[in-house]
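Marked as duplicate of an earlier ticket. Keeping the data here for the record.
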Amino acid sequence: MAPAARIPGLKAARWAWPAYAAFVVYGSLVPLDFHALPLDQAWQLFKQAPFLTLGVESRADWVANGVLYVPMGLLGARALGTGGSRAGPALLALAIAGVLAFAVEFAQLYFPPRTVSQNDLLAEWLGSLVGVLAALALGPWLDRWRLAWGQQAPALARLALTAYVVAYVLYAFFPFDLLISRPEIGGKLASGTLSWTFALSSERSWPRVLLQWMVELLLTVPVGMALTAGRAHRLALGVALAAGALLGSAIEIGQIFIASGISQGGSVISRMAGVAIGVWVWGVWRPGSLQAVQSWLSRHLRALLLVYLVPLGFASGWGRQDWAGWERALQSWDELRLMPFYYHYYTAEAVALTSLGSVVVMYAPLAILGWARRVSAGGAGLLVAGIAVVIEAGKLFMSTTHPDPTNVGLAGLSVWLLVKGLEVAGRHGRPGLPGRREARAAEPPSLDRRALPVLLDRAGIRRWLLPLTVLLPVMVAAATWPAAPVVVLAVVALAAAASWWLPASVLVILPLALPVFDLAPWSGRFFFDEFDLLCAACLAVGWARVRPRWFGSGDQGLSTIAFMVFGISLSISAAVTVAGAWAYDLNTFSHYHSAFNGLRIAKGALWAWLFVCLYRPLVRSQPELARWFHAGMVAGLALTVLVVLLERSAFVGLLDFSTDYRVTGPFSTMNKGGAYIECYLAVASAFVMAEIVLARRPAGFWGGSILLALATYAVFVTYSRNGTVALVCALGVVLAGGWRLRRRQGRALLPLIVVFGLVTVVAVPVLGGSFARERLGTIGRDLQTRWTHWSVALDLRDDRVSTALLGAGLGRFPDLHYWHSRTEVRAAGFRLEPGSGNPFLRLGPGATVYIEQIVDPPAGRN
């Protein structure tokens, strides 16, 4: 007989077994609403416990009952297994678990509204049997844990990763509510829980889906590490991606046969990426890497904590629900029940277990941060419990949810256990590991501030980190775009590939796509659109390939300071807007009154700055690349002019200059007026003029001349007086610069004459039309109207000191004008309403507002 002390896990099992039994008893009797009942009557009721026919909705609860008793059998068999034959302790543990299940079900008669059924007894006995069998089967495996625990850190890591993979696969199919009939499977196929991309619903918004996607990716990383653990060489990237695709496909296909499962193609991509990252991490891991990561996490603890609190709050409901104020908070507090696991009784067992697991997963990263900081397990648990108190207290102010005190205790306890486990694993997995104080004193210089950067450089991750971090969500967004996702994904992917292969191609791609890559009338996206995806992909890849220059130098210093001041002002104005009260709903990113309207405006300046930071080093090293940017502007102008010509010919004719029709071109933002098209045409035309002046070949000269004539036509048929003045100013700058350049080079001035002549010849017939004359004749009246409008806009600001110093906020004008204007007619109101699973557009009275959405209604459906 083996000594009791040498039985793996015996000591832990002996205290964990009764503790878990107490938890089962307590959880089965919550909310502890005792009702006295004569013993004989209770026994008669117990003997009449029915055997129910379970439908799909009850199957998950039945399985969850069984899962609850698996640890009872497993811990019991381990605690009683003191050596010799294991059959006796296993049978005894099974008998004790069965007696406990019998006693708990009988006791539930005294705690209505708890219900008793033979189904529950069967599930609990089967769960206990599975636990006992698992204890017998895992005996040799636990012996290997004991052998590796004291001296074989690599073997310990491989065992832990193997255990994680098994737990991960089991978790992926929880709560095991299998569909067992053809009608059930048919109903699942007809539901909205299957999608080639992402399964969206009223409860699964885009932010929530993307957050879940990132969690899926992170949870799969250890699977990739397990695949390559113990191998002499790291798996190839293609093999890792194929393994991830196989794992993801198997899980997502399996979800089709799980009643509560959601099957979506996006999850296959997340698991592919997670497995590939895990394979890479294991391949670059070296002795000392763990300490380097720990050191880096410790130094950046505050920043990482602040960053992580944002998704933690979002996952807990912050920002996704309306804030209902103090009255709702006081009402919620009066209704709050502090009894642990009280609210879990009022949900299905499967939902309750999933909720408990979600809380552990949500707070687990905080345990890693606490371990990195070498905070004691108790201290980390208390700190996280404090954070959980704040998170749960915020739910008092939410309109459709309530705080759960159980989450506070569960968060603190789970973090305490995780930190304790990391400490113990560190001491036993690497002999001689010093304690917290000794580790700080003995930390080698190589693990100081450059430790993690050196590790990242050795792995080459710095080159890949930025593009991978940006490209993964960008590609997912492109693949699930509401309009032409195949086109959007293809354009973004090809542009990103071109930017990696030849970084200078960014100088052509972005100015070319700027005016025409706009699908907002079809997609409805205008806060973050297709061009934003393109910018994010190209600039991330370009920045990874070329070291950007953040600021100018030398003769560019003054202009750099000016633009820095402008950027700071813009950032403050946007922050003032977002700092107001807001809640996430259908209108957050689809209405000009949104608190994020300022960020929608400011993002243009951000993209421009990031582009310039990439433009400078490229052109500084190869000055001829400046012409590439010119080529992109010219190509974008040509496409814009083509759209204008097609629009004119379709509506009024190319030579009709009397009808009061003004072109909008490919710019969807013209739905609210503004000077978008004429500003772009005037600026882009300057590049064509410059190309004509600089042209050394006849083809470039005559091609540019033709395009300039058509671009001039496009500017004037906007009938914008600002556009006309802008074009004349651009013409003056180009003529002056061209005259100086060609005089210095001793070249003929004919191109300058051609440029001036083309603009003049095209402008005369358009300006001679009746509509242009009418527009020019009302300049004085329109100027007075605008002056009055500007005065009204200034009067909309309040008298607060903060407003006087920082302004009312970027993008706040539509909101302020609607609510506070008293001298001008308000714009008509509109809102997207969720409806009862059927969203609709609600319209209100007021001045004209243009809302354009091109849809292709499905045949035979509403």
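See parent ticket for discussion. The beta strands are 194-195, 263-264, 830-833, 840-843.
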